[in-house]
Design a protein that fits this description.
Largest sheet: none
Structural class: mainly alpha
Distance between the termini: 33 Å
Number of strands: 0
Strand content: under 5%
Number of helices: 3
Helix content: 55-70%
């Protein structure tokens, strides 16, 4: 679970900004987006192939 503690003189906006950044670093947002809808196994394979080609 991602946790951010708000300091005494810290605004809520800056704490929220840090929280969102932490979520993005942990990969939580990407995971939520990936599970937003059903992805067929063939689509998963194609996405992974394209991703591996992109890395090369």
């Amino acid at each position: 679970m991602t946790e951010v503690r708000v300091g005494k003189d810290e605004s809520l906006d800056s704490a929220l900004k840090r929280f969102k950044k932490k979520l993005q670093e942990d990969g939580v947002l990407a995971d939520i987006r990936r599970h937003e809808y059903y992805e067929k196994p063939s689509e998963k394979r194609n996405r992974k192939k394209a991703q591996s080609k992109k890395k090369k």
